Amino acid sequence: xxxxxxxxxxxxxxxxxxxSFLYNLIKRPAQPGKINDLWSMFQxxxxxxxxxxxxxxKSIEELPIEKISPLRWxxxxxxxxxEDGSVFxxxxxxxxxxxxxxxxxxxxxxxxxxxxRNPLDMVISLADHFDLSIDEAIDFISNDxxxxxxxxxxxxxxxxxxxxxxxxxxxxAHDRYLVLRYEDLLTxxxxxxxxxxxxxxxxxxxxxxxxxxxxxxxxxxQKQEQKNEFNEKSPKSQRFFRIGKKDQxxxxxxxxxxxxxxxxxxxQMERFKYIPxxx
Length: 279
Hints:
Blueprint: E1 4-9, H1 15-27, E2 42-44, H2 65-81, E3 87-91, E4 97-98, E5 101-102, E6 109-116, H3 119-130, H4 134-142, E7 147-148, E8 157-158, H5 162-170, E9 177-181, H6 182-187, H7 189-199, H8 206-215, H9 218-227, H10 249-252, H11 255-271
Parallel strand pairs: 1-3, 1-6, 2-3, 6-9
Antiparallel strand pairs: 4-5, 7-8
């Protein structure tokens, strides 16, 4: 068994929030951990630094997707070998193959925490993050070939549709995979965050849990971003931490937009109880 613990999610589903909680829980800083210090504890398999040894003198932007696919397997092994113990690694990639190569190297994987969010809300955050209209964001999460291009900040990601992403990471029950609903983190925070501690083999300590929750609250993250721009913020968005609430779709989506999302994502939405009763 490997030593990578994945922090996986579709974009704009709560990945950063969970990472901030873990940072404050494990590091136990005297003050809330800084959002731009998260990388001292978490790796990202799409960071160019891992690919530099294999570029053969080329810039990262010159690396074609055909070369990235076979490299991921080795890159993830390099990440696993970079630390003696467990290593947390963020990913937005699907649990699937691309160009005949697995996007996730299971041979170096110890487990995964997967965060799933209601797509009715997620498309609103996604639209802001990528500077899309709501209709364009709905098309984004419905496209089996959705991904991101390589630039100086990140290597191309293979994201896929929301349904395929969720299915790939959650279809197989496994005691080393923890699936969390974003909405449960909001409405049942003690129980949900305690499940993370249990999953990681940590002793349940409600005092430490509540402290880490307070230090990683959405209000705290927003306050920090107001003072210093978050280094993961999209240049197309004014801010990374926007609302941090559920059911925004009730005010912001039209009935036809809601129906289109249900029509394209219904099977997985049903699994996670996301389909509104009125539909």
